[in-house]
Amino acid sequence: MHDNIRPAQADDIALLCDLDRLIFGANAYNEEQWVTELGNSARQIFLAAQNRGFITVQSSGDDHEIIKIGVLPEYRRQGIARKLIQQSTDAAKRCLIDVAADNRAALQFYQALGFREIARRRKYYANGSDAVIMEKAAPHSGA
Ligand SMILES: CC(C)(COP(=O)(O)OP(=O)(O)OC[C@H]1O[C@@H](n2cnc3c(N)ncnc32)[C@H](O)[C@@H]1OP(=O)(O)O)[C@@H](O)C(=O)NCCC(=O)NCCS
Is the CB of 22 under 6 A from ligand 1? Predict the structure, then answer.
């Protein structure tokens, strides 16, 4: 299969920095932050097939929090992010994400995947945007 995600390794730091910069621009982590992310045992980092995107997930028990997800602009709307989330959170009973209220594409993306708003943090981001906290419970969890 060519469409499987793979866990990032220590020698993917340069790749992760490049992807992050191309996707998030000024909001990208620097190299030191990626080294810290990779060294954090509570974090899982996966790369999409052909390194077209990445996801970082924090798991604590049954809950998985999506910390960062992005796909290179030229490969969007091909189901890559959907696959990154499905494959990296398949063991989760509940998934959570904070999304900037002005990130329309991301809000629509999470809604399409079945996430629902459960709370807001007012003016959470530096530009004054709210953080929308979204949740998705696994169908079999009973949550
Ligand atoms: C949000 C993001 C990760 C989505 O990645 P993607 O690979 O394009 O998403 P998918 O192709 O898996 O989309 C799955 C579904 O989500 C919805 N969706 C995704 N992007 C959308 C958009 N821009 N507008 C409306 N709906 C969208 C659609 O329903 C889509 O299914 P469809 O293409 O069959 O209609 C991508 O746009 C991105 O990297 N954005 C910049 C970084 C970012 O904002 N990350 C999220 C921070 S919380």
Answer: no
- The kind and range of the H/E element at 40 are none
* Ligand 1 and 134: CB distance under 6 A: no
Point out the ligand 1 atom lying closest to the alpha carbon of residue 53. 39
* Residue pLDDT, tens place only, 125-138: 999 999 999 999 98
Q: Is 78 in the pocket of ligand 1 (CB under 6 A)?
A: yes
Give the residue extent of every domain in the chain: 1-91, 93-143
Q: Measured from the CB, is residue 77 less than 6 Å from ligand 1? A: yes
pLDDT in tens, 96-136: 999 999 999 999 999 999 999 999 999 999 999 999 999 99
Model-wide pTM > 0.90: yes
Domain 1-91 has CATH 3.40.630.30: yes
